[in-house]
């Protein structure tokens, strides 16, 4: 289903629900639903154009072989916007598209994987992902990186950011995406970075997407 089809379809649902619930002024509110979905599509397009333009002297340089994959990827990205993905998630997905193009890996299946993982993550979950990527990159860059206790440092950083006992639930939630891997560590549950976390770090800047929210 294309972005143009999704807007009236979503608005029809809004109108139907408000009508059944007998909400006063539901006709007017249904029109607001139209405008909301149209605004989300416009916002999504602006974010994608902005991210595609970064880091290249010619943002319109798309090879002929990239056209069909880019169209399919853009439809999937548009669906995320129509489904209500937050601005930060849309920016992150746009960064992934730009990253795939940059690495000459503009493949719909690869983008679908990331869209399924990232489009509905909460801000708190993305905070865990962003800090995990930054920490992982420090570990890789350090001479003694193998001696880093990834999870202990991550816990300290989350605590410094204001997260308490709820952080453990966030780690578990993020682990369901495959970005963190649970394991046993001296009688307690720990979480370690996965290859997918490294891959995401090469494609996008999660902390940047959070900061631009």
Task: Give a structural overview.
This protein has 213 residues and is mainly alpha-helical. It folds into 2 domains: 3-118, no CATH class; 123-211. The protein contains 10 helices and 2 strands. The chain has helices at residues 3-20, 26-53, 64-82, 87-102, 108-118, 123-141, 150-160, 166-175, 195-203, 206-211, and strands at 180-185, 188-193. A two-stranded antiparallel ribbon has the order 1-2. A hairpin with a 2-residue loop joins strand 1 and strand 2 (188-193). Helix 2 (26-53) runs parallel beside helix 4, helix 3 (64-82) packs antiparallel against helix 4 and helix 4 runs antiparallel to helix 5 (108-118). The longest helix has 28 residues, at 26-53. 29% of the residues are buried. Residues 1-7 have low confidence and may be disordered.
Summarize the structure.
By secondary structure, the chain is mostly helical.
The global form is globular
Kindly state the number of beta strands. 2
Report the β-strand fraction as a percent range.
5-15%
Order of helices and strands: HHHHHHHHEEHH
Give the tags.
mainly alpha, 2 domains, 10 helices, 69% helix, 6% strand
SSE blueprint and pairings:
Elements: H1 3-20, H2 26-53, H3 64-82, H4 87-102, H5 108-118, H6 123-141, H7 150-160, H8 166-175, E1 180-185, E2 188-193, H9 195-203, H10 206-211
Antiparallel strand pairs: 1-2
Helix pairs in contact: 1-2, 1-3, 2-3, 2-4, 3-4, 3-5, 4-5, 6-7, 6-8, 6-9
């Amino acid at each position: 289903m294309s972005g143009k089809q999704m807007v009236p379809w979503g608005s029809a649902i809004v109108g139907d629900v408000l009508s059944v619930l007998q909400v006063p002024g539901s006709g007017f509110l249904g029109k607001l639903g139209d405008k909301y979905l149209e605004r989300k599509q416009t916002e999504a397009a602006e974010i994608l154009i902005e991210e595609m333009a970064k880091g290249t002297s010619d943002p319109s340089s798309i090879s002929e072989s990239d056209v069909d994959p880019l169209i399919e990827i853009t439809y999937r990205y548009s669906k995320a916007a129509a489904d209500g993905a937050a601005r930060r998630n849309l920016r992150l997905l746009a960064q992934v598209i730009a990253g795939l193009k940059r690495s000459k890996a503009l493949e719909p299946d690869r983008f679908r994987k990331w869209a399924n993982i990232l489009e509905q993550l909460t801000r708190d979950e993305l905070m865990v992902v962003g800090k995990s990527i930054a920490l992982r990159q420090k570990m890789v860059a350090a001479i003694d990186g193998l001696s880093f206790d990834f999870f202990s440092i991550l816990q300290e950083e989350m605590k410094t950011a204001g997260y308490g006992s709820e952080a453990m639930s966030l780690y578990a939630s993020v682990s369901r995406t495959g970005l963190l891997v649970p394991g046993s560590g001296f009688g307690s549950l720990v979480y370690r970075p996965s290859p997918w976390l490294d891959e995401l770090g090469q494609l996008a800047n999660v902390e940047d997407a959070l900061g631009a929210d």
